[in-house]
Amino acid sequence: MPKKILLVEDSSTVRQQVGILLSGAGYGILEADNGRDAIATVAAQKEGLAMIIADVNMPVMNGIEMVQGLRDKNLASGVPILMLTTEGQPELIEKARKAGAKGWIIK
């Protein structure tokens, strides 16, 4: 069974494009379109995730709030979380790192 990556992105087009790249590299892809649904997806997983890749700006719950929510609920401990966004402000990157994100990818 391939390792799974949770892709959290409100744009279905971006989810599809990134999903194609990751599945082509041999990963299984789980998807959520906001942070709240991502937390529910992680909580329902019986097997561990290889990684979580999340957009920062999403409706319902943004990516940084999602990271903090996962950590507060002790979900996905040890799972690296990468933020995927169009923004690169140092303050925002630092806020994400303090929440528990391990990396930052500019779209």
From TrEMBL:
- UniProtKB keywords: Phosphoprotein
* The keyword Cytoplasm appears for this protein: no
Does Aminoacyl-tRNA synthetase count among this protein's keywords?
no
One of the protein's GO biological processes: phosphorelay signal transduction system
Q: Which residues form the Response regulatory domain?
A: 4-107
Locate the 4-aspartylphosphate modifications and list their residues.
Answer: D55
- Leader peptide range in chain numbering: none
Query: Know the name of this protein?
Result: Two-component system response regulator
